[in-house]
Amino acid sequence: MSTLEGWLLPTCRSGCRFREFWNCSVRAEAMIAGPGLVTMLDYEMNETEREMLAEDRAEAYAPKPVGGAFMAGVCGAALALLGFIVAARFYGWPVRDHIGLALILVAGGFVLVCGGYLRLARRNRRARRAERRLIDREQR
Fold first, then answer.
1. pTM surpassing 0.90?
2. CA–CA separation, 23 vs 15, rounded Å?
3. 47 has which bridge partners?
4. Among candidates 115, 6, 131, 116, which has minimal Cα distance to 59?
5. Is 27 in a helix, a strand, or coil?
6. Which helix (H) or strand (E) holds 124?
7. What is the per-residue pLDDT across 13-47, written as a single tens digit (0 to 9) for each?
């Protein structure tokens, strides 16, 4: 396959090119409308295919966060603690004398990052639902 052909033929979720479309999990009659653009023609998708297409479309503008909210919060707490230790060493403060401030910063880092993760996850869910509604409307 030439580089121009690889640029013109988009890939689906499973990574196959639309030329090998019938072996793919997302099947439809497709027409290349321009560089990387595919329009769906006269094909009724089942529920799984609609969900996969909605998820793919939503990933473009609202990516799904990876991992879990708890682990993201733990990473945020660890970074807050590391930042506090670096600042304390820079100013010559004994860290043990400021444990209360360290705990407040660690809790704040956990809550801030965990909340950010949950916000991104909610944004992805809303985008998937909106794309699913659009796909259902297009299929009518």
1. no
2. 11
3. none
4. 131
5. coil
6. helix 99-139
7. 545 444 444 444 444 444 444 444 445 545 577 88
